[in-house]
Write a structure and sequence with these properties.
Layout lengths: L1 H22 L1 H23 L1
């Protein structure tokens, strides 16, 4: 029973990720841009 739940949970998460990816495909670019900015800021702050 536990194993079945684990498999179901995995499939559910996979479905959520796919649904999220389809819905927010345009957001992924934005998230990447934000991450790049944050990384640059971290490097900038650590430089001092």
């Amino acid at each position: 029973m536990k194993r079945l739940n684990k498999i179901k949970r995995k499939e559910y998460y996979r479905f959520l990720i796919k649904a999220f990816a389809i819905k927010n495909n345009y957001l992924s670019g934005l998230v990447l841009a934000i991450l790049k900015i944050v990384l640059k800021l971290n490097i900038f702050l650590l430089g001092f």
